[in-house]
Amino acid sequence: MLGNKTILPIHKRIKLFFNQKLGCGNFLHLSVALNPYRNHPFLFLEKPFKTFMGDTINSFCLFSLKDIVDKYASCYYQFGVRENDPVAIYLEDGIGYFIHYLALNNLGAIPVLVNGRMASDIAADFINRVDVVGLYTDSKHLNSISCYTKSNNSLKFVATDEDNTFTQYKDIKFPQWYPYSPTDSHPVMICHSSGTTGKPKPVIFGHKQFFFGKRIRLLKFPASQADKLLFALPSSHSAGISYFMTATLLGLPSMILSDLSGKNAINYAQRFKPTIVAAFPQTYAEMASEPLEKDQLNSIKMWFNTGDAAHEAHIKTLVDAGNSKSVFIDGLGASELGMALFNKVSSRKTTLYGRYMGKPRKFIKPVVLDDEGNILPPYKVGLLGIKSPTITPGYWNDSNRTLKSYKQGYWTTGDLVYYDKENRFYHVDRSVDAIQCASGLVNSLPIEEIILKNNNVADCTVIGAPTQKGDYGLVALIKLKPEQNITASALIAAINTQLSNNSCEKLSFLSLVKDFPVGATGKVLKRQLREQYKDILTCAENRLEDREIYDFADAVPILIQTNS
To answer: DSSP states of 488-556 as a string?
Structure first.
């Protein structure tokens, strides 16, 4: 699979870094021109890419990537797609999103990336709200979404590779200025938020804002001729596109996974021998729940995490499974932030956890705000507010929501945090997930950290459920590690002892589950769990078997809930 050099030499990386014309519309063309190894394969695909011409591709070099991107761009152009036209892409995970992202950006159009795991009705609603001019999908997704798109009058075309829609445009035709050179504020992509708190929001990515981090990686990202990347990110997510761009700019050999499960990631980590892994917390949690031995994945020296901040127990397991000097690089991220803006590096020697999310990067200004927008002092929990050149220009077709996301000029992410006197930030919850208990407001993430220290627990999530007294009790949903058979009653007793020893609110109810409901990006849908368990602490006749809740335990008898 490998054997040839592919990494862009450092002197050419520096040349690219200082090229002021470098951007989202032309970086592939410039990479092809500068990289002396342009004909050596560097992107390897778990799932082969099938083109509209019927070809099946298992790997790409820079030159072949540019060739296929140019063909798709030409087809879009002849299909009537023009500058500033939003076009939706709705596919299975894989390199297809990146190819369409490049083709549309090279035309100055705006790719609207819709995660293929998103339910068809939600995807159709999202596409309608963005008001796209066209949809590119595959036969599987078209079958599920066509009943919704028929009533969408803004759609000028719906195309798939399988129906050969584009085959009539095999002749290559471009506008004179191809590839497009966007202005700083030009939208280069629309991605949706995770949808964990409601409808997925259409987040705009501006050219200068989004490319800011990629330019920095030309000098900062590790890429020696020995490095290889295991790509286990949702390829429709902005983080996935960001790592695709980084790999292309650097010529970094990368295995692109379509199956993002922990077992599959471990399988490819053992086969591909990557030095770097990039994934979301859900993939890392699944990897950590497997019986990994120390140094089992000893080719890995760096684990990159984005999205939600990872849990301590999962970080420690993965760092131990990597090589002896392996580090886990964590950064609380959100689509609206443009990139991970805090830097936390964990090794086998790390002792600072406790929901520590890192120190802010030098180019951002973070604060902690109360509900009125007042800046809070150290150790006070409040809303995270950010000023940064990477912040989104806003939400597409929703200026009101954009404006309401600001407090005193700071973009608020909905995360609850605090910081200490050394400017170290700690992430304790999402504001919608904090729980009003009899003892006061309880943040769920520190509770989850303590639960995960139990050796039987692979993963967990904590929500609040109403009690008869009008406050809320803590409900924990727990996935056990393989081959563990502890009962729920024994586990809740052990966990409540742990919580009591840490002066934390104790659990009122615990249920052992096989899976959590998750959104398209893998985040747990706590709002859905809150609905499912809304009467679990107030009704003696819960008909738990009807809800497929079989192994559960109460801390105290139902109808006599207390926090003692």
So the answer is: HHHHHHHHHHHHHHTT-PPEEEEEE-S---B-TTS-B-HHHHHHHTTTTTT-S---GGGGT--SEEESS
* pLDDT at res. 559: 37
Closest CA to 184 of 21, 73, 338: 21
Beta bridge partners of 303: 277, 328
Residue 423: which region, alpha, beta or left (left: phi > 0; alpha: psi -120 to 50)? left
Mapping DSSP to helix (H, G, I), strand (E, B) and coil, where does residue 454 land? coil
Residue 241 has pLDDT above 90, yes or no: yes
CA atoms of 237 and 245, how far apart (whole Å): 12
**Residue 386 has what pLDDT?**
97
CA distance 58 to 488: 46
Q: Distance of CA 46 to CAs 38, 57, 95, 258, 265, Å? A: 21, 11, 10, 6, 11
The predicted-structure confidence for 400-450, as pLDDT tens digits, reads as follows: 999 999 999 999 999 999 999 999 999 999 999 999 999 999 999 999 999
H or E element that contains 265: helix 262-272
Query: Is there a contact between 131 and 86 (Cβ–Cβ < 8 Å)?
Result: yes
Distances (CA, A) of 63 to 394, 515, 550: 35, 42, 56
Orientation angle between helical segments 62-78 and 96-106, nearest 10 degrees: 60
Rounded to whole angstroms, the Cα distance separating 77 from 548 reads: 51
Please give the Cα distance from 424 to 332 (Å, whole number).
Answer: 13
CA gap 235, 529 in Å, rounded: 27
With beta carbons less than 8 A apart as the criterion, state whether 124 and 112 touch. no
Helix (H, G, I), strand (E, B), or coil: what is residue 328?
Answer: strand
* DSSP class per residue in 174-201: --TTPSP---TT-EEEEEE---TTSSPP
Phi, psi of 221 (to 5 degrees): -80, 135
Check: CB of residue 91 under 8 Å from CB of residue 138.
yes
- Distance CA(47)–CA(42), nearest Å, equals 15
Q: Which candidate, 317, 271, 272, 275, places its Cα nearest to that of 299?
A: 275
**Tokens encoding 121:** 């009705």
Q: Report how far residue 285's alpha carbon sits from residue 308's, in angstroms, rounded to the nearest whole number.
A: 12
Note the pLDDT tens digit of each residue in 44-87: 999 999 988 888 999 999 999 999 999 999 999 998 999 999 99
The position carrying tokens 């020995």 is 226
Instruction: Render pLDDT for 330-383 as a digit per residue (tens, 0 to 9).
Output: 988 788 998 889 989 999 999 999 999 999 999 999 999 999 999 999 999 999
Query: DSSP assignment, residue 77?
Result: H
With H, G, I as helix, E, B as strand and everything else as coil, classify residue 205.
strand
Report yes or no: 441 and 505 within 8 Å, Cβ to Cβ. no
- Cross-strand partners of 553: 510
Mean pLDDT calculated for residue range 459-483 = 93
Across the chain, what does the average pLDDT equal? 91
- β-partners of residue 412 are 385
Distance CA 512, CA 516 (A): 10
